[in-house]
Design brief:
- The protein is α/β, with parallel strands linked by helices and 318 residues long.
- Helix content is 25%, strand content 28%.
- It folds into two domains: 155 residues, Quinone Oxidoreductase, Chain A, domain 1; 129 residues, Rossmann fold (3-Layer(aba) Sandwich).
- The protein contains nine helices and 16 strands.
- The longest helix is centred in the middle third of the chain and has 14 residues.
- The chain is globular and about 70 Å long.
Length: 318
Amino acid sequence: MAEEKYMQTIAITNFGGSECLTSMHLPIPTPDQNEVLLRVQAAGVGLWDVKVRQGGATLPGQQFPLILGWESAGIIEQVGSNVTEWHVGDAVMSFTYQAGIGHYAEYVAVPANLVAAAPNSVDALHVAALPVNGLTAYQTLTEALALRAGETILITAASGTTGGFAVQLAARMRAHVIAVASAHNHAYLSELGASELIDYTQTDIVAAVHATHSEGIDAVLDCVGGKTAASCLETLRNGGRMVSIVDLERVKPRQGVKADIFYVRPDGKQLSELAHLVDTRQLSISLDSVFPLEKAQQAHQRLEGRHNRGKIVLNVQQ
């Protein structure tokens, strides 16, 4: 029997605060016939990881010790017997939402169909920032909202990672983008393609929208939830639609408008499309901060402070 090999990971043995994140040596996974084994270079950190850590996003079959992380950039180390489209040495990225697969680790085995070639114009740290937030923005705009050229869309938390991608993608779709963020992020959002800017700390969002769009707007992408989502519903024209990626708990149904919650799904083909946009300079990736793998606790604390502009990433192989 071959000797079992181990890897450095960040995992939890119980749910709770950031102090639950623990450095552990766990066995390197063996890819099945339809998987590839990645040597992880960098892993993205998102609020979904916080929910998993707190016990708010469990999956059937999930068990402790539980390695966190849904996304990473890395190099293919091994391919399953049925895998023909990928080869050892390929630089790739992946997003998975599946029990037993965690990306806060030196190695991760992922389904081959959820892998995409990494954009070659940016480093692995930037690549790891793309999968979950990039797909969330892409899927909400193209599928859930079916945004069309010439329409007006309001994006809340626009300077966050998903918001920043959404501003760029919506502008590329030739929509009129109203970005909601604090004033010190306005210049940044203008560069990303926002047409109008609202400082939510100084201005009522609904009043600001109706001041320039008296009949209301076509669409809202809400990245905040709660009272913000509830108020943004009032910016919509008759026939308008809103999607929240957080919650609709305080949103009261209103005749003539549509409001839905949206959950991103892994998609290797769409990831490839995003990589192309990055390499053709149609989509930029912003990093807020980078932490070594063993500093995952500090990365989560930074994220929970809700003041990051751009993505927080773990550098796995320094």
